[in-house]
Amino acid sequence: MDLFLSCDWGTSSFRLRLIQLSDLKIIAEEKTGRGIAETYQKWKQTGGNEADRFKFYQSYITDQIGVLSKKANIPLDKIPVMLSGMASSTIGMLDLAYKELPFSLDGSDLKTEIIQVEGANKFIIISGARTEHDVMRGEETKVVGCSLATDQSYPEKLLILPGTHPKHIIIKDNQVIGFKTYMTGEFFDLLANQSVLSASVEKGGDFMAPEN
Q: How far apart, in whole angstroms, are the C-alpha atoms of residue 108 and residue 110?
């Protein structure tokens, strides 16, 4: 089947998308506020048995796959799941070491772990990347995706990923060779919501809206 499940599991959010492989079209998606941090705490409350850790996280993903299956009206029990973000962190379902830079834009040398559980979806867990002074988890997968939609004729590029902690990523000869993390988004949130300027800051529209 020409489908796969993309799971971006962040610290405070869970995003699961059913993707058509041929054109990368999103067929259906499910988002919740159940991030890795909350899931980790719930696992700790059960006793924090390492032997049960993967299965505990897997059960939540499986539940959400069931929700997505009903939305799309497609059975998804045999569809592989690509996991990125904090799923591979020390508080995730499996602790994978970072890939030291550089890494290829096609993602072929990123560290991954493939786990096939009998009677369940196959899980492909993608680790993060690091420099001597900085780390990323989840953004490395976005970089690979962005590379498919950018002009490959330029040997050097600067990719800017906005967010609470934006990353400026340096690309050269189809490899990520460096990046820096900034606090811009967090500072803006503090100014917009908790400073004396908050009353004069207007809420913006959808980032993806044409007027923005």
A: 6
Q: Against a cut of 0.90, is the pTM above it?
A: no
**Cβ-proximal residues to 113 (8 Å cutoff; 6+ apart), any chain:** 88, 94, 96, 124, 125, 127
Q: Are 18 and 76 in contact (CB under 8 A)?
A: yes
Q: CA-based Rg of the chain, rounded to a whole angstrom?
A: 18
Exposure on the CB side of residue 139, measured as CA atoms within 13 A: 25
Tokens 């700790």 belong to which residue?
Answer: 44
Q: 207 in a domain, yes or no?
A: no
* pLDDT tens readout for residues 141-163: 999 988 877 777 888 999 999 88
Task: Tell me if 206 is assigned to some domain.
Answer: no
pLDDT digits (tens, 9 = 90+) for 46-96: 998 999 999 999 999 999 999 999 999 999 988 999 999 999 999 999 999
Check which CATH number belongs to the domain holding 71 and give it.
3.30.420.300
- Residue 42 CA to residue 60 CA, distance in Å, equals 11
Whole-angstrom distance, CA of residue 212 vs CA of residue 201: 16
